[in-house]
Predict the 3D structure of the following.
Amino acid sequence: MTRHRLVWSILAGLGAFALLRGPSGAVAGAVLGVGCWLVISRAEPAHQRAEREQLQRDLPHVVRLLAAALAAGASPVTALAAIAQAMPGVVERRLARVVAQLRLGADPAEVWRDLAAEPALAPLGRSLARAHLTGAPVAIAVERLAEDLARSARADVEDRARAVGVRAAVPLGLCLLPAFVLIGIVPLVAGLFSQFSF
């Protein structure tokens, strides 16, 4: 869609102009064309959305593995390199870049800030940056983050389970309502009408 945003913007503007005509149609067409251009340009491409969602799903596992590796005495760089090897795909690509920067001597505070700027890995980046700046033990910060993410994941699963019950009630109600009307109300109304003599 982003490849053809000019075409979509022109079509939206022409559609508004054809619908309203005259000066108001020209203004509405221009506004709609520019609005369409802005909305499409801000839209996230499908592959980026899929990568972000995959990273969000994998983040609790990454943090748990990192906490275990740090508790075993590994340095953050060694732990992240091991996690990158253990989790191929999007996680490997993102963490391999972080590991390469740290091994080349980049400032860890900058690397963690860059990691925090990435929406899917922001909690991990913020925790590591905070631990680095305050001098707090990294293992404790990562363990706390793992607990928070586990708690958040449990709450999310419970919310989805409650939503399933609500969604299941609507089709069930739509199925049972006609049966209730046909079995309960129609015979009652027919019985009442049969008592009246015309």
User: Anything to note?
Assistant: The chain has two domains: 5-43, 47-153. The radius of gyration is 29 Å. Helices lie at 5-20, 22-42, 46-71, 76-86, 90-103, 108-117, 122-134, 138-195. Residues 5-43 form one domain.
